[in-house]
Amino acid sequence: MDGIDPNYFTCTLGEAARLKSQDGSFEPLCRTVVELIDHQAKINPESPALGFADFRTRPFLSFQELSNWSIRAAQTLSSQLGLCNENESSTTIGLLCTSSVDFVLTWLGLVRLGYSVLLLAPQLEPNAIEHLCKTLQVTQMLVNEAYRHRTDGINSDISILRVPSHQEYTASASIEKPQQNARISDIAYICHTSGTSSGLPKPIPQSQFGVVGAFPSFPGRDKPATFSTTPLYHGGFPDCLRAWTSGAMIWFFPEGHAPITGANLLKAISFARAQSPVPLNYFSSVPHVLQMLAEEDEGVQILQSMDLVGVGGAALPPAVGDKLVDAGVNLLSRMGSAECGFLVSSHRDYGKDKDWQYLRAIDDPQLLVFEPRENGLSELVVKPGWPFKVKTNRDDGSYATSDLFEPHSKKQNAWRYHSRADAQITLANGKKFDPSPIEGSILASTKLLQDVLIFGSGKDYAGALLFPGSEEISESEIIDSVWPCIEQMNAASQSHTRITKAMLVVIPERKGNKPLEKSSKGTILRRQAEERYADAIESAYQARCPSLSRVREIPDEKVSAAVSDCFFQVLGRKIDPYQDLYLQGVDSIACIQIRKLIESRCLPRQSGQLSMNVIYDQGTVTALVEHLRNIRQGTNLSNGDEEDAQLKLMHRLAEKYGDFQKAKQVSCRGRGNVVVLTGATGFLGTHIIHFLRQNGQVKKIICLLRAENSRVAYQRVSESLVNRGMPGLEALDRDQASNCNVVCLPCNLSIDDLGLSDADRQDLRVQAPVIIHSAWAVNFSLRLGSFEDQIAGTRNLINLAAEAGGRFILVSSTAAVSSSAASTIPEKMSQDPSDASPLGYSRSKWVAEQVCDAANDQLTGITSNSQLATIVRVGQLCSNEAGVWNATEAYPLMLSTAKITGCLPDIPNEVLNWLPVEAAARAVLEVAFSHCVSVSEKKPETRTSTPVYHVLNPHNTPTWNQLLVWISYEDPESGFAIVSPREWVTRLEKALGERKIDHPSQALLGMWKHTFGQNIDSEGCSDEAAKTTSKFTPETLDVFDKTALSYLDGNNPEQKNMGSRLLLGHWKDFETKDGEGNTILHHYSVNADTEKNDLAEVYSREYPVAIGVLTDSAIEYLIQRETTL
Questions:
Q1: What region holds the Thioester reductase (TE) domain (predicted)?
Q2: Domain 44-214 = CATH 3.90.215.10
Q3: Choice between 487 and 69, residue whose per-residue pLDDT is larger
């Protein structure tokens, strides 16, 4: 193309065919994926092959490791599936998994066993998954935990199996290749279309030759590596196999560990470059990713550092591409399809040719041609001589792509993409659908319309323009006439094709209006129509739609009906106005849409915008309606009134669930060696179960959790352990030396019988001497009422403990008492609901503690001579030995606000008493098993009171301000100011409002306003007062009595103060928090000259970890691993 030689990154299949015909050295020696991997392992064993910038797996796999691990994967999978039997009706296995090392190894293992693999995108609805499986006769699916819910409701004839973790492939496992390998005629994998309006995607098989043999094999070693942002199930495999065929390496963004944001991409690429033994000079992406990078100077700089930046999958906005090219980025457009592979690119002389949009096709009419169409456009047609096609749509074996192009005015054989001939709509996320059937169905459903135009290209969701046939028909009549049809289609279609009532735009019929322009075949000329009605289309996506302005005049008595209608339009179902919205399944995405509708329909323009969390803040439709009426009337809303109502609700809930008169009174059956645990999939719960397994006295652990059945419950617990760096339950089952049995039961804690069968409940009555209740919904956006199910679950578990003559341990939080006015918060019950921080989560914990106290008052002495319920208030936890930490804690959220406010608060009295989760888990267990120690031995003066323990790091150093000083010194480019707490809260509130973003810190804004200044808006409150009275977050105060913790864990080596190196490691994690509270992690290389005795310090600062800091034991492990490697 233009005399520029291709490379493995730019070479189309047409160019590959030409190169092979001219020089046989470009012909790959392999014809299957297995042959390719094993061949590269033989000739390039140490060359890097695959990396995921996730900081959890190994930095990368060599071709030898990839071959060996895939063999081990085959061995593991063969125990579940066996070898593929050619005589069986089905040889295809479904794979639904995050784009990860596990994905690649599972796929390769299945290929080694002779199976073809259906790659299922996680966005598919269950009916679409079932349709694909039925079409391909798939009877077994491998699914990882992240996407297990996507299989709910599919045909029970399809067996759901767990995707094995690569951590299960032990280094000592023998490497014996399966006796059967896939043949060249076998299908390597099967991808699928996005689906049409019917919600039924079509499978597209990819042959072994198509994914390996059609590619060229460029000679030489140490080729530049590629970094791809495309998930493997969405087209990442072609990039992957294109690189491997030429012995090159590819890196992937760590899907599932962090969202793709500009900041996260920069960190991931930096990590990959630091780890990669070969230069990382190629970048493969999709338009919306490049748009994110183009918005930041650092993003443009990283693209400038690449030799080539490839973009494909959809059209990149010209302004974005022009900006990058003008900045010196070597931007390359690449276009292909699952049906025909890599077709054309804009590879050229980048120094002289800036026409990045114009694709250069191979000049061979036996391979590709551009056939003339209307309006000076041409359609790309793939001819019979093209080396790879899985589909033809013409009698001569050609494939007409329906892609229309316009030629360059001066350059020969240069074409710019224009549109689709079949007018498929491509949404912003790349999902496509054909609008024609939707338009036809709507038109056929009513006689009131003369035309319908579905729109949505480049948008997040679709809408419809409705053209009435008469001026006399009202807007409401038209919408009412078509809505039943749209509802029916929405119910049967995939989510990306659904249309809400709010996205129905009626175009009034007026004299002189021209009808929609149509082709000679009667089809709408979509581009012309979209240009003509661009204003109407754009208005549909605005929060305040002009066409609805008249609805603002609705009287107050009709606000309730209007609000209910907004919910109905978004959800498609009625909502109980008196019940909690969260408990009725109103998710955060629905809240955004509902909020925008309410602003448009129920508020005058001068009222401003509603707060982002208004739906959850109000909790019910009735409360929301009252809130809106106050705004409409200009009433001076009193936060004090709302606060008093919440405090009264705390008392009411405590009384409601603290009545144990109906509990069965039984005598103690004696204590056995069984523990019942809730929250086994949570951060703390997984560590509790891990240490219980190591306790030789515990013979059985019964985990209660929400799940479809016992098998799913077991898988969820096992995968939660593995994901946090601990052995899964399967490892325990294989350990013959272990005497501990783990049973996982599906349950519903909010109902009286816990949702258990009579037999399971009876077993628990007999076997449950200790119940540890660690499960709780951690959602800072919810109000107290949304936690009622959690409180009910506490009462029901206490009833079970009473019936079993056992002991109940509530894992509470210091948040339940963190707003106490006491100088030192004692380890005893709180009697004042205002002691809890002003979050629904914190208040629900306070209520749960009151329920425990009521149980002790009413039941102790009936079931045993000791207190029935014990409370463990846990403070701020930090990472485990594997470096895993919850991403949505208060501290990470506070530090992440530096990105949007440019500042952090000055809190001089704040102590960073973070505690490793392992230490907290051990402390909880020591409390649980301390029943042999009388209460009087602990605190004689509180013999009859409910036992309360504070699980916190006892050290009082360092402080928050020390951390800020260290960050400023270590990271001078961080660029944040240190301001008063009140100033920080003011800036944060302003940033959240102006940016109109759903940053997770929004959920804690109310608590921070309450904490930092005591009436922050009052002129009488000085910043200095705010500092001295500040109590920041629930988990971080050094005002808690910790005598019990000292008694229980006084010699625990993990209770150490946080040093500067460890805290700076936390900052490196927290500064990259995005709007969803996720993290992309950092890597800092260890100097090769570092002495071994300095490795601990170096690793604590510089070793790549997942989320959090390395404990001493983790550092010791890494030192040993470094020595071994």
A1: 677-924
A2: no
A3: 69
Residue 10: both structure tokens together = 């730019």
**Integer angstrom CA distances of residue 937 from 882, 940, 941:** 37, 6, 10
End-to-end CA distance of the chain: 46
Query: Regarding the domain delimited by 1-30+216-400, which CATH topology (the fold level of the hierarchy) does it fall under?
Result: Rossmann fold (3.40.50)
Label residue 672 by pLDDT band (50, 70, 90).
low
- Whether 550-637 and 668-874+915-951 share one fold: the answer is no
Could you give the residue ranges of the DSSP H alpha helices within 44-151?
63-81, 101-112, 126-135
HEC string for 493-527: CCHHHCCCHHHEEECCCCCCCCCCCECCCCCECHH
Alpha-carbon Rg for the chain, nearest whole angstrom, is 31
Cα(140)–Cα(21) distance, integer angstroms: 42
Residues contacting residue 977 through CB under 8 Å, at least 6 positions apart: 902, 903, 904
Residue 615: CB partners within 8 Å, gap ≥ 6? 581, 586, 591, 594, 595, 624
The per-residue pLDDT for 785 is 83
Give the Å distances, CA to CA, from 1099 to 840, 1094, 1112: 39, 9, 10
> Which H or E run contains 33?
helix 33-43
Query: What per-residue confidence (pLDDT) applies to 1035?
Result: 41
Report the amino acid identity of residue 35. Answer: E
- Residue 1064 — very low, low, confident or very high, per pLDDT cuts 50/70/90? low
Q: Return the number of other C-beta atoms located less than 10 Å from residue 246's C-beta.
A: 22
Distances (CA, A) of 1005 to 516, 782, 811, 986: 50, 13, 25, 10
Q: What percent of the chain has pLDDT over 90?
A: 34
Does the bond joining 958 to the residue before it have cis omega, within 30 degrees of 0? yes
Q: Give the β-pairing of 903-905 and 463-468.
A: unpaired
Q: Which amino acid appears at position 189 of this protein?
A: Y
668-874+915-951 CATH:
3.40.50.720
The band of 266, judged by pLDDT with boundaries at 50, 70 and 90, is very high
> How many Cβ atoms sit within 10 Å of the Cβ of residue 308?
21
3-state secondary structure 724-740: CCCCCHHHHHHCCCCCC
The answer to whether 932 touches 1026, Cβ cutoff 8 Å, is no
Domain spans in the chain, listed from the N-terminal domain onward: 1-30+216-400, 44-214, 425-540, 550-637, 668-874+915-951, 960-1030+1055-1124
Lowest mean pLDDT among 204-218, 507-521, 672-686: 507-521
Question: Which CATH superfamily groups domain 425-540?
Answer: ANL, C-terminal domain (3.30.300.30)
How many C-beta atoms surround the C-beta of residue 538 within 10 A?
A: 11
> Within 10 Å of residue 710's Cβ, how many Cβ atoms?
13
DSSP codes joined into one string, 899-948? HHHSEEE--TT-B---EEHHHHHHHHHHHHTGGGS-HHHH-GGGTTSPPE
Strand 903-905 with 977-979, pairing? parallel
- 550-637 classified as CATH 1.10.1200.10: yes
Q: Which of 128, 302, 336, 58 is nearest to 214 (CA)?
A: 336
Q: Which are the contacts of 836, defined by CB distance < 8 A and separation ≥ 6?
A: 650, 815, 816, 817, 818, 819, 830, 842, 843, 845, 846
Q: What pLDDT digit, counting tens, does each position of 973-1021 carry?
A: 667 888 999 899 988 888 877 655 556 677 677 778 767 754 433 333 3
- Helix/strand/coil (H/E/C) assignment for every residue in 593-621: HHHHHHHHHHCCHHHCCCCCCHHHHHCCH
**What does the CA dihedral 693, 698, 700, 705 come to, rounded to 10 degrees?**
-60
Distance, CA of 286 to CA of 333 (rounded, Å)? 10
751: closest CA among 796, 713, 705? Answer: 796
Confidence (pLDDT) at 650: 92
Q: What pTM value is reported for the model?
A: 0.48
Q: At a CB cut-off of 8 Å and minimum separation 6, what does 1123 contact? A: 1092
